[in-house]
Amino acid sequence: MKQARSKNVAITVFIALLLMPVYWLLNMSFKTNQEILGGLTMWPENFTLDNYVVIFTDPSWYNGYLNSMAYVTINVIITLLVALPAAYAFSRYKFLGDKHLFFWLLSNRMAPPAVFLLPFFQLYSSIGLFDTHIAVALAHCLFNVPLAVWILEGFMKGVPREYDEMAYIDGYSFPRFFIKVFLPMIRSGIGVTAFFAFMFSWVELLLARTLTSVDAQPIGAIMTRTIGASGIDWGVLAAAGVLTIIPGLLVIWFVRNHVAKGFALGRV
Amino acid sequence: MSLTLENLSRIVDGVDYIRDANLTFEAGSFNVLLGRTLAGKTSLMRLMAGLDKPTGGRLIYNGEDVTGQSVQRRNISMIYQQFINYPNLSVYENIASPLRLAKMPESEIDRRVKETAAMLQIEPLLKRFPLELSGGQQQRTAMARALVKDATLVLFDEPLVNLDYKLREELRAELRDLFRERQCIAVYATTEANEALALGGTTTLLHEGHVVQSGPVMDVYRKPVSTLAAQLFSEPPMNLVRGRVFDTELSFGEDTRHALTQELANLKPGDYWFGIRPSHIALAPANDDDLEIPVEVALSEISGSETFMHVESRHFDMVTQSMGVHQYHTGAPIKVYLPMNKLFVFDTHEQLVHTPSLASGREV
């Protein structure tokens, strides 16, 4: 009994410490700049939604969100479209060098994004892709596709080959089998893969910032450029931070039951 | 209507999955493929289904070469050892799926699904999903899906292995009834000799990718062409003892000699393999001419209401199977009795030379 209580206390303290910065961000977003700079207050004394109003009315703010969402969505779609057939091939067929190729895919992720900064920048500038959503989405695919193939392959291996054969015997053609029978069977895997692709693309800043200037600027980049003549607008910045966390929370909520399996690359 | 396999082979990287299989399956027949694990039962079925490509030989259906035809274009069904159903479709939709793909009118689909479900006693489950069902019900669903489309070839790949004993017997009996009226070719793979006997029809013995023997089940059981066939089609495997025949006598070792009975009188003097099924070895003499052999008990195990004993003598080991529960201590000297009229005799090349004659009313 005593042990159980001390365990509870420990967990509570741990979670409180973890949530501290998140709470502080939320706290700040409802305060005025005067209050933030004025002194230490544990909760907003003059509760205000003005900071959020600024973000939802100023195009230079909300376009950042729209841009981020656009290239993240494009990235997730491309990643899945490319990774699903690739993962199926790895899970079902043997071919020359398949194991090496499979490992090489994962080793792609070992390179830091900064390495690819210059080549991407030069390439996109010269073919006119610079400052477009697709440019960022494609750049992120370099990191997301290998991971997606790894995760999906694990899920697909979990489906016995007999399912494929049964469908052929019943008269399904391959494309029809793949879309109507196979994809529903690994839908949690697809969800988890989409989540990982989303997460990487949503928080990645270096490539996204370098490959865009105005039209496709992500929210992360905008947040780092809020220092105006009157100094830093703390309240608005905090509100922007809160709004950046929310999409991630929503996505986690949808895949919460499958994330552990996804982290183990489907091999649980 | 018949399916003929002509020198059908599948050899991958020097390993014989199936080598030179020559078999004919008639419409309306029930065929059992019997063999141990890795004997090639599944390989043979996959070749017949068109799921694998043979590396040699031809597959002929009604005089037409169908060797390279795709699975989708053949009218076949297959039932696996694992319970394979579409997990995201209801039992009804599972059974209906082959019909839907064949673009059958909705009323006909409904009629057929209900009829097949009734046949397999899963009518009340039609609205449920496969993973909510018990193993037996899942396998019934898979069978319903296989039977609903009037396939010309129905393949069962050890379908009852993952079910419990009681359910297995029940489903096996039903299965046999279901196929009595059908005009399709049914092929059933199993590792169990007893199952092959229970199912009847035609039995094909497979071993390491080769067809050992094929024919009506009783012919194969009574006249195994070789020691291998005899051992495959006997559970536990048939005992084989090296022996020598003299002019009128028979010996399994140097010290004991037995007079030859009428039945074995025309064996030429020489070395032979003598085979006897474990269930035919008695612990008490039944006839005067039974061979009495002193042995030592090496192991005694009780299974249900039967006792299996591994016994040893200086020259051979044997397994006996007897009804009732008997308890013997390891090392106990006992006598076993081999009825002469139950002996199979094989020559030194392990080919059959003598089978026990069928005495009226007596099991062999």
Automatic annotation (TrEMBL), chain A:
- Gene Ontology cellular component list: plasma membrane
This protein's membrane topology, according to the annotation, is: Multi-pass membrane protein
| Family matches, as InterPro entries | BP-dep_ABC_trans_perm (IPR050901), MetI-like (IPR000515), MetI-like_sf (IPR035906)
Q: Which residues form the ABC transmembrane type-1 domain?
A: 65-255
- Transmembrane keyword on record: yes
List the Pfam families: BPD_transp_1 (PF00528)
- Its transmembrane ranges are 9-26, 69-90, 102-121, 133-156, 177-203, 234-255
Task: Choose any GO biological process term that the UniProt entry carries and state it.
Answer: transmembrane transport
| Keyword entries, A-Z | Cell membrane, Membrane, Transmembrane, Transmembrane helix, Transport
Note the CDD domains from the entry: TM_PBP2
Entry keyword 4Fe-4S: no
Cellular location(s): Cell membrane
Q: Which PANTHER family match?
A: ABC TRANSPORTER PERMEASE PROTEIN (PTHR32243:SF52), MALTOSE TRANSPORT SYSTEM PERMEASE-RELATED (PTHR32243)
The family note in this entry says: Belongs to the binding-protein-dependent transport system permease family. MalFG subfamily.
Question: Know the name of this protein?
Answer: Trehalose transport system permease protein SugB
The source organism is: Marinobacter litoralis
TrEMBL record, chain B:
**Which CDD domains does this chain map to?**
ABC_Carb_Solutes_like
Check the record and name the SUPFAM superfamilies matching this protein: MOP-like, P-loop containing nucleoside triphosphate hydrolases
- Give the organism the record lists: Marinobacter litoralis
Ranked from the top, the taxonomy reads: Bacteria, Pseudomonadati, Pseudomonadota, Gammaproteobacteria, Pseudomonadales
Q: Does the keyword Metal-binding apply?
A: no
Q: What is its EC number?
A: 3.6.3.20
Q: Which InterPro entries match?
A: AAA+_ATPase, ABC_transporter-like_ATP-bd, ABC_transpr_FbpC, ABC_transpr_MalK/UgpC-like, Mo/tungstate-bd_C_term_dom, NA-bd_OB-fold, P-loop_NTPase
Gene Ontology CC: one annotated term: ATP-binding cassette (ABC) transporter complex, substrate-binding subunit-containing
Gene encoding this chain?
ugpC
The protein here is known as sn-glycerol-3-phosphate import ATP-binding protein UgpC
